[in-house]
Amino acid sequence: MRYVILRDDDTNALTPPSCLETLYRPFLDRGFPVNLAVIPEVDVNTRMENGMPEGYLFARNGSPPDKMAVGYNAPLVNYLKANPGFHALQHGCHHDFLEFNSLPREAAAARMDRGAKMLMDAGFPKPKTFVAPYDKLSRGSLSEAAARFGVLSTGWFELRRLPFLWWPKFAVKKLRQTDHWRIRRTSLLTHPGCFLSRNRVPKEIVSAIVRHVESHQLTVLVTHWWEYFQDGQRNEPLIEALHETCAWLAQRRDVKVISFEDVGTAMG
Fold first, then answer.
1. Hey, what's the torsion of the CAs at 73, 227, 242, 212, to 10 degrees?
2. Beta bridge partners of 82
3. Bridge partners of 186?
4. In this predicted model, what pLDDT tens digit does every residue of 45-88 receive, in sequence order?
5. What CA–CA distances, in Å, run from 13 to 7, 40, 86, 118?
């Protein structure tokens, strides 16, 4: 059996529920878990490296407060709770630019704890999976994430950023050429990049996903809901590629779509 985890990043207090419904109704109807990396208290002024506002802020209007807890968007929270196929992960705290890239341990701990509180204040369970904005974590952030969460999902791991006590297991991982590994009770998962992205040729997305899934025991598919609605406009070819992916997963009896909470089964 091969396993697939769908991770969608950047749900936040400004996310229209209709966007998630458009994208993930086919997954929910098939009983597939959809793992949403939720920004607990989004910084509405976050900009990318090129100075442009982050794409997940396209629904911003008026003069909102600088930071908005996800619980502010009651229709979104109610929608997610009404659809138990959605699983809320903790996506940083504010998602300001490279939020956990260089934080010392104490500051990282404070942000993680605040983010978890914001999610629980909105009525979500205590988060068990952590996703750092931009998949970037400092050594101190890695230590604190492993102390708090059962799963850490990121793009890759670099030796120079790892806590020194992790180095021996990282060396074994490299020798075995494995994608995923563990530190004590925490599963450390990598992903192959964003196949489901507006930066890819839509007609080539599904075939790329198929090749990767068929050659790996566990695949984390990462996407971003707002890329399907650039500036609020539907990207139909990309939406179609997502739904074709869902249809392919549904007809494969040797592939199981799971949540991050089920990762222990997939890793053996």
1. -120
2. none
3. 183
4. 999 889 899 999 998 887 788 999 999 999 999 999 999 999 99
5. 18, 8, 16, 11
Q: How far is CA 76 from the centre of its chain?
A: 17
Structure tokens at 187: 């599963």
Report d(CA 84, CA 105) in Å as an integer. 34
**What percent helix, strand, coil does the chain show, rounded to 5?**
45, 20, 35
Give the span between the Cα atoms of 40 and 249, in whole angstroms: 30
Structure letter (DSSP) for residue 44: T
**What tokens appear for 191 in the block?**
């992903």
Please classify residue 167 by burial: count the beta carbons closer than 10 Å to its beta carbon, then call 0-12 exposed, 13-18 middle and 19+ buried: exposed
Q: State phi, psi for 87 to the nearest 5 degrees.
A: -120, 120
- Of 4, 68, 70, 7, nearest to 225 by C-alpha is 7
Nearest to 23 by CA among 36, 40, 4, 41: 36
Q: Residues 204-227: pLDDT tens digits?
A: 999 999 999 999 999 999 999 999
| pTM passes above 0.85 | yes
> Would you state the structure tokens that stand for residue 217, as one six-digit string?
């025991």
**Are residues 189 and 152 in contact, defined by beta-carbon separation less than 8 angstroms?**
yes
Estimate the crossing angle of helix 17-29 against helix 74-82, to 10 degrees: 0
Amino acid in the structure at residue 204: E
